[in-house]
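Marked as duplicate of an earlier ticket. Keeping the data here for the record.
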Amino acid sequence: MGSGKRNFLNLAGFAFAASLTFALVPGAASADALHVFCTAPTPTCTSNGSITPTSTNPPTFGFKKSPDTGSADLLLAVLIPNSAAGANSESFTINGTFTGNAAVASSLFSTTAWASDTLETYLSIPATPINPIGALLPLTQFYEPSATGYFVYKFDFGLVSFGTNDPVFATSFVFPIGSVVTAFVKTTVCHGGTCTDNWVATANSSALIVTNGTSPPPPLPEPATIALLGAGLGGLGFLRRKRKTIAP
C-alpha cells in the first residue's frame, strides 16, 4: 500500500482518538465555568483539571469564574455524603467575603438524597457545564466507602463580582469526611421586556473534597482523566492493528 494511504489511515486513527476524547470529557464544550481555590489558612488547592482534597476542616475557600469578570448571583452548594451521621439534618452557617450576603444559614434542598444523574437536574438548575454524580462520588467513596449519594445544602450569597475580589467563604462547621463544596452563578439578560437566566456551574473538577486527616491519600483519577487515557490507548491500538494489516 502506498505511503499516501498509510498516512491517511494514521491521521484517521489519531482523529478518531481525539474525537472520542473530546466527547468523553465532561464540560468540554462550555467556555464558562467556576473554579474553586483555597486561601489561607487552608493550604493552597486548585481545581482546574483535578479535584484537590484538603485536610483542613473546615477549609477557607473561594470561587473564580472563567472568564474571570462580571457580576452574578452566587449559589453555594455543600454536598454531604448520605452515609454520614446526621447528613440530612445538619444546621450550620457559612460566612462570605466580597459577597452580597455576609452570612447565610444552611437550607436542605430535599429529604431525598442526590444519587443519580447530574447535580443540575437534581436541583432543577439549567446550568452548564453539567456535573454527573459519577464525576464526584468515586472520590468521596475513596474516603467514605459507604456513601451512595449526597444530601445537598444550598446557600444564596447574592450578588458577587468576579475579578479583583473573588468571593471567599469560611465556616466553623466541620464537614463530614468526603463532603463536596461546589457552586453556581446566575446572570439575567433582558431584551425587549423578556428576561432570561443564564446559569454557570463548576465543571466536575471545580469542586473541593473535604477530608478530616492531616495527610489525605492521593485522589482517584477523575472520569475525564480515565476517558482521556482510554481514548489515547484505543487510538494507539487502532494504529497498531492498521499497520499490521497494511504491512507488506
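See parent ticket for discussion. Residues 1-30, 224-233 have pLDDT under 50 and may be disordered.
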